[in-house]
Design goal:
Chain B: This is Oxidoreductase. Chain B: InterPro entries: Gluconate_2DH_su3, TAT_signal, TAT_signal_bac_arc. Chain A: Residues 428-552 form the Glucose-methanol-choline oxidoreductase C-terminal domain. Chain A: One of its GO terms (molecular function) is flavin adenine dinucleotide binding. The complex is a heterodimer. By secondary structure, chain A is an alpha/beta fold. In chain A, 22% of the residues lie in helices and 19% in strands. In chain A, helix 6 crosses helix 10 (457-476). Chain B is mainly alpha-helical. Chain B has one domain. Chain B has helices at residues 8-17, 28-41, 69-82, 92-95, 97-105, 136-155, 164-175, 186-202, 214-219. Chain B starts with 7 loop residues before the first helix and ends in a 31-residue tail after the last helix. Residues 1-57 of chain B have low confidence and may be disordered. Classes of the chains: A alpha/beta, B mainly alpha. Chains A and B meet through helix 2, strand 5, helix 9 and strand 17 of A and helix 7, helix 8 and helix 9 of B.
Chain lengths: 570, 250
């Protein structure tokens, strides 16, 4: 029998970036907020041993314990879905800070085009540019409406950047801190991209160029370029993360606490409202009911969708009929890339997660797609994140994967190889969706989320076109050998690609084609909010955190308003 | 690379093993000595000789997973073929990779502790990844036994007595999925073995591979350094003496 706890105003399910932002803003406004975090507490002090590639980057110390919970996956409906038994394609977060602890810190704003993608695509290219199998839709909010919240998130995080990208939406303010260092490696890309007529700019970074105090009084250190960022926490507190910003901000109000080892298994609903959540204490196995005036799902894309499904809130998407919205429009990212082999040795082991330069000349609708067989595109970046030796063994295509020649070539090329990559947008397709798995369960007896996903024609066409463009840049950079990535065929969940999963709990202006409204308020339960990249109706050509950060700030404001007035916010 | 860059632990080893310092140039020879003993005899020639470099007061290596030297020596020879000693420096044996793998197999890596291991199990498509009911420990035990079996079948000799080309032929058969294994494909085992070899070579030496950080030196990776903020803008390539995370002090 579950024990019922005292009611709070707001409960967040998960305490990463989303939970932290909601908690900080609501607690500052006087609401009593409780965060339920299935993992443990952690802070900068816990990252002292972080310069350990094997422990953190290979064995995934900071990431989700899949023995407790994973997802199942199939490429299409004809295949039997099987569990993702090991992490690979994407690295799910766990513990305080979530994936916001081991992110790299690339902090972009989605393009104005992204928010109105259906309207703008049809205006320019007609209604038949993409087949109707692609479930393209506007987000219901414009870039300009979201701009103040982008600004707010960037100020909280102290983002380092330069306002020189001609394709970006208009900014109300410059970046809070100057861009990171332009290293010799970055300059190679900058010179090559410029000479091809493109518009390189310093990647907006949450590894800060200088020490910074944010408007909440939290301090973030200056990045030391140690080369251990992606998959790691920052021992300097120089990579903006929830546990050094929004979480302490919420804590110092006295209105916020976190219950750790609390794994939420159900959102409790009665009529058109939710009453709270049920969770399992993972250390004792005891069950608790946490009643709340407002429930906010702030875990990762997968878990937000799963909790709605197991709680039977909303209608499951059905690819046969097109009915239902929950689980619909799952998106990923398309990653064209090129490796270049150089003669000279470079300091590739130095770096920072978001140290890079980017062009948007082939992102969004920056370029004409009239004669192309796809829409959208990718931000194209060269990043110097710090190459580490277990994961970095570059060999030219004619060298075998093991043995004497492999050893020689991988050692020779470790310091002589650079890569340029694109983060390509992912268009929603009717066959790409999330649902509940009928066979496999997590450690608490709850069904696993099932992912049905494959690359589509649009993805393959975009990948091919952009790979060619990227190869031209690499050639211009002076690489002696330019090796383009292979064309994509079927999505493979094994090799790491990107932890930028989107969709499944998408936002919109109509309950017929979205799960939440533009305030991320659930259409079927007015005191339930669902926050995260799951809200994206498609995935853009950038990392998602800047955009979900902005959406979360807007929702935090909406929850405060709802707490006073009640009812639908639209 | 000059001898004086090798650091104290190397010189201590030379002293304790009685090898004249003057006879050694670079990292290759030590790997060669270690590899030689195992290569020729398949077993330790003299207690402590094979891993003399490990037996100083601060670093003792031993087997936590394998229960006999014969299996361990098959593993050693196989990983040495994957990452051999050459003029650049030591190979997998010289770097301690077999110990790294053994030790890892005895722990959460070998037992797939943080991975989803609940059934039902189905072979699945390649795009669905690891679907074996075997843990890595079970997979390695079977895989090593299969390597020995292949050696006997093809050459009527123990794996460790084969010449390099013959060993490569067997490893290639695994890579091409031509060897029958139970509960897992030989191709999959090969991939895990190859990956584990690289992990053992290049992980921090606290994991009992990457002896003396020699793999990092070969590659030009400085290991754990607190900061590069003062040199990251330099055009010049920086050669930096590597450091282990075990030196970490804030």
């Amino acid at each position: 029998m579950a024990k019922t706890l005292d009611k709070v105003n707001v409960v967040t399910v998960g305490v990463g970036w989303m939970g932290g932002i909601i908690a900080a803003e609501c607690a500052k406004a006087g609401l009593k907020v409780r965060g339920l975090e299935r993992g443990k507490a952690r802070s900068t002090a816990d990252y002292q041993m972080i310069h350990d590639e094997y422990r953190y980057a290979i064995r995934y110390e900071l990431m989700q314990d899949l023995s407790k919970e994973t997802i199942t996956f199939r490429n299409n409906r004809k295949m039997r879905a099987l569990p993702m038994r090991q992490l690979g394609s994407f690295l799910l977060g766990e513990n305080l800070g979530g994936a916001g602890t081991h992110w790299n810190g690339h902090t972009f704003r989605f393009l104005p085009y992204d928010f109105q993608i259906k309207t703008m695509t049809e205006q320019k290219y007609g209604k038949n540019k993409l087949s109707p199998d692609y479930l393209l839709q506007d987000w219901g909010i414009t870039y300009d409406e979201l701009e103040p919240y982008f600004d707010k998130f960037e100020k909280t995080a102290g983002i380092s950047g330069e306002n020189t990208n001609p394709f970006a939406g208009k900014r109300s303010n410059d970046f809070p801190t100057p861009p990171m260092k332009r290293t010799p490696i970055l300059k190679k890309f900058e010179n090559a991209a410029s000479s091809l007529g493109y518009h390189p700019y310093m990647l907006p970074s949450a590894n800060l160029s200088e020490a910074y105090e944010n408007p909440d009084g939290q301090t973030i250190g200056a990045c030391q370029y140690c080369g251990f960022c992606e998959r790691f926490g920052c021992e300097y507190g120089a990579k903006t993360s929830p546990e050094i910003t929004v979480v302490p901000t919420a804590m110092k109000t006295g209105n916020f606490d976190v219950t750790f080892h609390a794994n939420v298994v159900e959102v409790l609903k009665s009529g058109n409202k939710v009453t709270g959540v049920r969770y399992v204490d993972t250390q004792t196995g005891e069950e608790f009911i946490q009643p709340a005036d407002v429930v906010v799902l702030t875990s990762y894309v997968m878990n937000n969708a799963k909790l709605l499904m197991v709680s039977k809130i909303g209608e499951q998407y059905n690819p046969d009929t097109g009915r239902g919205t929950l689980g619909k429009n799952y998106g990923y990212q398309i990653l064209p890339g090129v490796t270049g082999f150089f003669d000279e040795q470079m300091n590739v082991f130095m770096g920072a997660g978001a140290l890079g330069m980017t062009i948007d000349d082939f992102n969004g609708d920056s370029f004409d797609h009239s004669d192309l067989d796809f829409i959208h595109g990718a931000s194209i970046s060269l990043t110097q994140t710090g190459n580490r030796p277990i994961q970095t063994n570059p060999i030219p295509p004619d060298v075998p994967a093991w043995g004497a020649d492999f050893k020689k070539a991988s050692i020779e090329n470790y310091t002589r190889t650079l890569s340029i990559g694109g983060q390509g947008a992912s268009m929603p397709h009717k066959e790409n969706f999330m649902s509940l798995d009928p066979d496999y369960r997590d450690a608490y007896g709850v069904p696993l989320l099932q992912l049905t996903y494959n690359f589509t024609e649009q993805d393959r066409n975009m990948h091919k076109y952009l790979t060619d463009r990227i190869a031209e840049i690499m050639k211009e950079m002076g690489a002696k050998t330019v090796v383009p990535g292979n064309p994509i065929s079927d999505y493979d969940i094994v090799p790491y690609q990107t932890t930028h999963n989107t969709g499944g709990t998408i936002m919109g202006t109509d309950p017929a084609n979205s799960v939440v409204n533009t305030y991320l308020q659930h259409w079927d339960a007015e005191n339930l909010f669902v926050v995260g990249a799951g809200n994206f109706p498609h995935n853009g050509g950038y990392n998602p955190t800047g955009t979900i950060g902005a959406l979360a700030y807007r929702t935090a404001e909406a929850i405060q308003k709802y707490s006073k007035t009640g009812g639908s916010l639209v | 690379m000059a001898d004086d860059q090798k650091g104290l632990s190397r010189r201590d080893f030379l002293k304790t093993t009685g090898i004249a310092t003057g006879a050694l140039v670079g990292g290759g020879l030590i790997g060669g000595l270690v590899g030689y003993n195992v290569n020729k005899d398949g077993v330790q020639t003299k207690s402590g000789t094979k891993n003399a470099e490990d037996h100083d007061v601060t670093s003792v290596k031993g087997l936590m997973f394998f229960t006999n030297h014969a299996d361990f020596n098959v593993l050693s020879q196989a990983v040495e073929r994957i990452f051999p000693e050459d003029d650049l420096g030591p190979g997998a044996i010289g770097l301690g990779v077999p110990y790294f793998i053994d030790n890892q197999l005895a722990g959460s890596y070998g037992n797939n502790t943080r991975e989803y291991m609940q059934g039902p199990f189905f072979a699945g498509e390649a795009t669905q990844g690891y679907q074996s009911r075997l843990t890595r420990a079970e997979m390695f035990r079977q895989g090593i036994a299969k390597m020995e079996e292949e050696a006997q079948k093809r050459y009527q000799k123990p794996f460790v007595d084969l010449d390099g080309g013959q060993m490569d032929e067997i490893i290639t058969a695994f890579q091409k999925n031509e060897v029958e294994m139970k509960g897992v494909s030989s191709e999959f085992f090969f991939r895990v073995l190859r990956q584990a070899t690289l992990e053992g070579a290049y992980a921090d030496p606290i994991y009992n591979g990457n002896n003396n950080m020699d793999a990092w030196r070969m590659k030009g990776f400085p290991g754990h350094q607190m900061a590069y903020i003062n040199m990251i803008e330099d055009e010049k390539f920086q050669k930096i003496e590597p450091k282990s995370i075990s030196t970490m002090q804030h």
